[in-house]
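Translate sequence into structure tokens.
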Amino acid sequence: MNTTIFYYSGTGNSLSVAKNLANKLDGQYVNISKYLNANSQVITSDAVGFVFPCYAYSYPKVLNTLIKKIKFSSMPRYVFAIITYGSTFGRTGMKFIKQLKKNGFKTDYMTGILMPENYIAIFRPDSASVIDTKLANAKVRIEQISDDIKNQVQYIERHSKPLDYIKTSIVSTIFNGFLHFSHIFFKAKKSCSSCEICVKVCPVDNIVMKNGKPKWGRHCTQCMACLNWCPKKCIDYTPITKKRSRYTNPDIELKELI
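Result follows.
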């Protein structure tokens, strides 16, 4: 079964999952942002997957653009979605499936994979031992999921508790509204060397250099790639992150995200 996996990733968690799944399925993995910025090629795959992180119990809005612009020679026979998350993903999957349905896609498989925490703007990064455990468990999950996809298993992981609805309907709405103002909370220290890595890793081209320092725009998705990949750790998001360690997926090299 010819497979194409679209991924969106900031610190590398979702890229790692997409890359490993593609290897096990003998498929290809495609950066969503690069696909949209290039002359979008026609996809001829029998199976199409989407791998993306959970942001405030919802999914990155760039996926809405992808769904509308993606080009197929014919509709894929099998569609799956894999969500990477740090604690829980609420109704993220069901919300994404609903959006897919609006655009003519029937989702056959949806589940999540617990990954190391990377949203250090609010949460403390996981300890080294927790990171190791989560990554080891994630590899097991990827094996299970790849087998399911190969066998075209029909499965939707449902989260239907009242708190799941509250998180995805209310928290994500507030979060997405806040994104328009989030640029004012990023700051680069004087130690910034103008290496421009933050510009290069931003998946939505939201950062430009001005007078040798990064300047953030209004299209941030809060992936925290700029902050976590900065080699000098000189980017902060509010004073909360000043003393917190950074996280990038150890299986992913910087050049893979640039």
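Note: The radius of gyration is 18 Å.
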